[in-house]
Amino acid sequence: MGVVVPLGSKNETAKKASLKKLQSLVADDLSKVNKVIVDRMSSRVPLIPELAGHLVASGGKRLRPLMTLASAHMCGYSGERHIQLAACVEFIHTATLLHDDVVDESDLRRGNATANALWGNQASVLVGDFLFSRAFQLMVKDGSLKVLDILSTASAIIAEGEVLQLVTSNDTSTSEDAYLEVISNKTAALFSAACRIGAVVADRPKAEEEALESYGRNIGITFQLIDDVLDFSAKQATLGKTVGDDFSEGKITLPIILAFRRGDDEERSFWIRTLENLDQQEGDLEHAMGLLEKHGALEDTIERARHYGAKARDAIGFFPASEEQQALVDVIDFCIERAH
Amino acid sequence: MGVVVPLGSKNETAKKASLKKLQSLVADDLSKVNKVIVDRMSSRVPLIPELAGHLVASGGKRLRPLMTLASAHMCGYSGERHIQLAACVEFIHTATLLHDDVVDESDLRRGNATANALWGNQASVLVGDFLFSRAFQLMVKDGSLKVLDILSTASAIIAEGEVLQLVTSNDTSTSEDAYLEVISNKTAALFSAACRIGAVVADRPKAEEEALESYGRNIGITFQLIDDVLDFSAKQATLGKTVGDDFSEGKITLPIILAFRRGDDEERSFWIRTLENLDQQEGDLEHAMGLLEKHGALEDTIERARHYGAKARDAIGFFPASEEQQALVDVIDFCIERAH
C-alpha cells in the first residue's frame, strides 16, 4: 500500500469526545441493553452465543441502539420499552453484518477475524437467521404493532438494498443517485427506524416521528459515505480494517463513481478492468487511490457526507434544545470526523 | 448407483390421491394464497421476484400453507386472515430453503437447479432475508400478536435446529434422540406453527390449538424421516433429486444412526471414514446403501415415521369428523407413502 491520502488533521480526542456525550447520557440504559443482548443471545446450542457474541462483543460502537435510547429520552420517554427495542435494533444490525460478511467473503471486521472466517459461512448464515428471529421475538414481547411494522419494513428494505447492491456491484456506470438509493436502503433504513421508534415509544406526534426518521436516514447516509471513504484511507489501517476491501470486491461506492465520471478514457478502462472484470494486479489498488486523489474523489465524498449531515442536523433542530438533542447532533460530527 | 433398495410396492395413484383431497378442499383459498405470494414477492429489484419465483414456482407442494388453510377450515373459520398467514408460512419456508441450499451447497432441489447454483450464494442469502422480512410484514398486517409470537418463535427454533444440525453434522455418535431434537426444531416447528395458527385465527380454545400444534409437530417429524429415507432410495431419482446428497455431505440422519449402532467395528470405521472424515471414494455410496439394507435401516426409519404419523393421527382425532379432518389424516399417509 504505497499511497496515503491525507484526509485532515483532526485529532483522536475530538472524535472520541463526540460519541462520549451520547454514551454517558444513556450509560445506564446501555448497560441494560447489553444485558438483554447477552440474555437473548443464549441458546441450548452453544455455537449460537459463541458466534454471535464474537461479533456483538468485538468493539461495535452500539451506534444504532444508542440512537434509539437517546431519541426516546429526547422525546421525554421514561419507561423501559426502549431498552428491549434498542436490543432488537442491534440484533437486526448484527444479523445483517453476519450475512454481509458471507456475501462479501470478508475476513476482517473491526480488526477481528469475521465470524464466517472463524466458523464458516454456514454457521454465519444460520446464526444470522437466529438473531433476526430473536429480534422479532423481542418486538412481539414489546407488543407494539407500530414498532413491528417499522422494523419489519426496515428489514425488508435493508434486504432489498443489499440485493440491489449485489446486482450493481460491478457496474461502473452506476449513477450517484442509484448509489444513494442503495445506501438509503441497506444502511440508512435501520438508522431511521432506530431513531423513529424513540418517538413511537414516547407516543409523540407524527411530526416528531418524521423528524427523527429524517435525522436517522440522513445520518445513515453520512455514516455510509464516510465508511466508503475509510475503505480507501490510511486511517482504516489504524482501525484494524483492511484497506481496499471494496476495491478488491469490485464494489462501486461514491468515491469510485466520482472518479469514474471525472476520469478520461484510459482511467475508465482501468476502472472497468479492475472493478467490472475484477482483473486486478499488483499495484492496482495504489493506482486507484492515486486516481481518487487526483480527482478529489475522497474529499468530495466527505463533502457529500457533510451535506447529509447538515440535513440530519436540521431535522433534529425540530426538537427543543436538550442534552440528548446536542448529543445526537454530536453524532453527526462523530460520523464525519471518523474520516480524519 | 448400483444398489436399489426396495421400499414397497404401493403405486403412484394411491400416493397422489391422498394430497388431492386436501388440495381440492381448499383450492380457492390456495389460489388466493398463490396470488398473495406473487404480489408480495414483487420488488423494484427484479432479481428478487426472479430468484424467489424460481423456488416458489418450482413444483413445491405448498404442503405447509395447505395445512394452515385446512386447519383454519376445520376449526370453522370463515374469514380471510388464513390466506395471508398461509402465504407467511410459505415465505418462511422458502427463506429457509434458500438458506439451506447455501448451507448444504446443494445444486438440485425438486429436480431443478437450486437458486444458489443459478444466481450464487450471495443472492440466495439476501433474497432469503428479504422473504423472511416480507413474512413478518404480512404478519404485522394481519395484526395478531399471538400469531406473530407463534411464527417468530418457530423461526428462532428453526434457526436453532439448523445450527444444531450443522454442529452435529459429521458426528456418527449422534443419538436417535439428539437427531429427533434436530428435526423437531428444523422441520417440525414450522409444520406445527402452520397448523396451530389455523385454530388461532378461528379463535378456538387452547386445547384445539394444542391438538393442531401436536398434529403439526408429529407430521413434521414423519415428513423429515421419510425425506431422510428418500435421500438413499431409488425413488428419489424419479423425483429428479440426487441420491446420496446427505451421504456426500456427511449428514447424520436416522437411517445412518440406526445402521451405525447396529454395525460391527469394520462398518463403523467405514461410517467414520466417509461421514466424519468425509474421505469418500467411488463405490462408497453403494456400500453405504448395502449396509443400510443389511440392517433394515431404511425400513425401520419408515417404521419410526409411522409411529409419529400415528401420533399425528391421534392428535387430530380430537376434532369431530369433517372433510378437512379426513384430508389432514390423509396427509399423514401421503407423507409416509412418499417413500414407496
Q: Evaluate the radius of gyration of chain A.
A: 20 Å
Going by CATH, the architecture of chain A would be Orthogonal Bundle
Helix content of chain A: over 70%
* Counted beta strands of chain A: 2
By oligomeric state, this entry counts as homodimer
Integer count of domains of chain A = 1
* Share in β-strands of chain A: under 5%
Number of helices of chain A: 17
CATH topology of chain A: Farnesyl Diphosphate Synthase
- Structural class of chain A, by secondary structure, is mainly alpha
The CATH homologous superfamily of chain A is named Farnesyl Diphosphate Synthase
Characterise the protein shown here.
- The structure is a homodimer of 340-residue chains.
- In chain A, 74% of the residues lie in helices and 1% in strands.
- Chain A has 340 residues and is mainly α.
- Chain A has one domain (12-334): Farnesyl Diphosphate Synthase (Orthogonal Bundle), CATH 1.10.600.
- Chain A has a two-stranded antiparallel ribbon.
- Chain A is globular.
- Residues 1-17 of chain A have low confidence and may be disordered.
